[in-house]
Design goal:
434 Repressor (Amino-terminal Domain), Rossmann fold, 12 strands, 16% strand
Amino acid sequence: MSDKRKSTRRRRGSEQPTLQQVADAAGVSAITVSRALNAPERVNAATRIKVLATVERLGYVPNLVAGSLASARSRFIAVIVPSLANAVFIEVIHGLQETFEREGYQILLGNTDYDIEREYQLIRTFLGWSCSALVTAGLRHSEACRSLLTHWDKPIMEVMELGDALDLNVGLDHHEAGRCMARHLLAQQYRSVVYVGACLDRDYRARMRFEGHREVLHAAGLEAPMIELDQLGSLDAGATGLERVLSRYPSADAIHFANDDLATGALLRAQRLGMTIPGDIAIAGFNGLPLGQHVTPRLTTIRSPRENMGRLAAEEVLKRLDAKRVTRRRHDVGFELLVGGST
């Protein structure tokens, strides 16, 4: 864990900067700050750039709620996820929504498309509507976003993985999940194992699993080749992944895919090619999606308790909102190895 990351850890009880504080720091009037944010065409470029840089540095968020409502606590909770096309996040959202709605809260939902700059813009917008809390998928944020959240004084819950959180954290250990599957494949006597992922700079949790996978293979004295696809998880991308493994690593006896969509696509493609699974090649995935459990052979995978993760995250946020004592800031929800017929 880097010192830089630790230095940006959120301080509970820190005050949000005001418009006047931004103006003082930028050396301009409050009305100039307001114009730079709301009518930028009325402010010269140099002043506008200076004001916006100060806004970002201080983590200032304009309050979009008018008049006396601005000081009232809303019944909205912002939820930011990287994809609404991925069943993994839909299940987490379901757990969050069900739990929050039971206590009279509604969610404001944002999709980043795995873009941390888009996450920053979404969070700025949602915080401006005086949300009562924020739930975001993952611990990685832009520096500007971390600065913004460090100065925000309401509950922040980061889900999906474990680590040095800004406030509250519910997730699982992705390094250990990668190690777990690699150990399983070695126990099944596979010795030429290729990891296949997609867009790993964006899907960084899949990279974490690869790092754990690689540690286990290297400890056993084996190579740990990896193929990175340029299309996020889909059946078609999985088929492409299989074909690349067969072309580049013809002696491979197992493939560890970053997710079940890729793994299932590869399994179906292998069958169309007349290959037997796992006789010709073994295939494993991650997530424990229903799709992989309804193919033949059933997919070996790791199941994460996504809906329960959402429920637990919501419960911890509600405790904070109700001023109840939160005894644990971090919760490891764990995972389960599901051994199917594909390995």
